[in-house]
Amino acid sequence: MNFDFALILTCTINPEDMPYLVRNNTDIRLNDYKKSFNFWVKRKDIDKIILIENSNYDLSYFKKIAKKSNKQIEILSNNLNNTFDKKLGKGFGQYLCLKEIFEKSEIAKKTNFFIDVTGRHCIKNFKQIIKDIIKNKTDIYVNITNNLKFADANIYGGTKEFFKNYLIPETKKTNDSLNRIFENCVSNAVLKAISDGMTLSKTPIYADIDGFIGTNGKKYKQNIMKKIKLYFFRKLKIYFFNHKKY
């Protein structure tokens, strides 16, 4: 697969009293991250991985796995999760992780397209998603819902220009206490980028996630009926965009 991109995995193993977070047990979260990291490292359609952990947790396990791999894997560690008012929410920590990556990552300096995935999640239909990204050749790849106010930040992609000039400046405004969550800010970044001429994939594939929702602790569920519903809903969107008269 001749498409140069880097996968970003953002991690907070020890959230330490982060509000609005039910799945907050350090051991449970560590196991989530271990499972996910192994899933991504084993994939043949990924050559570059940037893992960043922001609670200063011991990352020996991940470094050991990375060393055995033939991929380009960069592991960044910091304590940024404990440097801001927790009222801002976990999404603000996500913003700090992205900012750190584009300031310090060697892989990021040499790469132009990035796919950001919640570090605890495995995306079971990633093969279909990456093929769709390659096919569309757009600057931004993300599902936006709720009247363009909410972006699915479980997995989304974009060029370096989008991340540096739009996503990071907008997600800096994340503040859960004001009900301005990370996903709202990502959506705002997308809309600003589009208004400046960047291109957005109109019908991105819905992610099939293996993992748990941090805010309520529930496992993501996509039964066969929901998958069929999403499949045909996307087909309808494709038909609409391909046959519009204006």
What fraction of the residues are assigned to beta strands by DSSP?
15-25%
Helix and strand succession?
A: EHEHEHHEEHEEEEHHEH
Report the CATH architecture: Alpha-Beta Complex
Strand order of the largest sheet: 3-2-1-4-9-6
Q: What is the overall number of helices?
A: 8
CATH fold naming: Spore Coat Polysaccharide Biosynthesis Protein SpsA, Chain A
Largest sheet: 6 strands, mixed
| Helical/strand content category | alpha/beta
Tell me, what is the CATH class?
Alpha Beta
Shape: globular
Mean pLDDT: 92
What portion of residues is helical? Answer: 40-55%
Classified in CATH, the superfamily is: Spore Coat Polysaccharide Biosynthesis Protein SpsA, Chain A
Radius of gyration: 17 Å
| Low-confidence residue ranges | none
Textual characterization of the structure:
- With 246 residues, this protein is of the alpha/beta class.
- It has a single domain, classed as Spore Coat Polysaccharide Biosynthesis Protein SpsA, Chain A, CATH 3.90.550.
- The protein contains eight helices and ten strands.
- It has helices spanning 26-41, 60-68, 90-104, 106-109, 126-136, 160-171, 182-195, 224-242; strands at residues 6-11, 48-53, 72-77, 113-118, 122-123, 140-141, 144-145, 150-151, 155-159, 209-210.
- The strands form three sheets. It has a six-stranded mixed beta sheet, with helices on both faces. A two-stranded antiparallel sheet has the order 5-10.
- Strand 7 (144-145) and strand 8 (150-151) form a beta hairpin.
- Helix 6 crosses helix 7 (182-195).
Structure summary:
The chain is an alpha/beta fold. It has eight helices and ten strands.
